[in-house]
Amino acid sequence: MKMEDLDMTESLAPKSDQLDAVDLVGGPRTFTIENVTRHNAEQPFNFHLAEFPRVWRPGKSMRRVIAAAWGGKASKYIGQRITLYCDNSVEFGGAAVGGSRISHMSGIGDKPLKVPLLIKKGRSAIFTVQPLKDEPKPAPTPARDWSKEAAALKGNVDGLRALYMDAQAAGADPDTLEHIKNQAKEVSE
């Protein structure tokens, strides 16, 4: 009998509607903020992350860090990137339960960001976030020559339909779309 190499990590995901600190136990992860929406009084904001299926709901300290870095308006957060990690020393109700913390942020320049945070009643400490270097921009893909592709597909209605859909999805100009459509009509006539 052949041994199957099973991946148990899928079974370790918490049954939760948000990113939890345990999702970061394997190490820090970098995310892109797609949107920010309202949630409830205790956890007022949902940060929708491009690279994760559940929202992140930062605690008050991390919201203070975000506001210090990017300002108070959530619209400025869209497209920004953050690296989160699991900090096992985070306390809740006097017990160390762990929590998500920010280690790196885009949009803060090239120097670390230092933010004073309340650690416990009457005691504060400086929380430091490192700059997150911009990802290298992918090389631009050369523009497609829709007319040339249509000519190569002459006589192939299904191919021309697929090309038309691709051109439309890519935002090709109306003249190009009409040209492809006319190529397809010539075949069916």
Provide structural commentary.
The protein is an alpha+beta fold and 189 residues long. Helix content is 24%, strand content 26%. It contains 4 helices and 8 strands. The strands form 2 sheets. A 6-stranded mixed sheet has the order 2-1-3-6-8-7, with helices on one face. The protein has a two-stranded antiparallel sheet with strand order 4-5. Strand 7 (113-120) and strand 8 form a beta hairpin. Helix 2 runs parallel beside helix 4 (174-188) and helix 3 packs antiparallel against helix 4 (174-188). The longest helix has 15 residues, at 174-188. It is elongated and about 80 Å long. The protein starts with 28 loop residues before the first strand and ends with a helix. The model has no long low-confidence stretch (mean pLDDT 85).
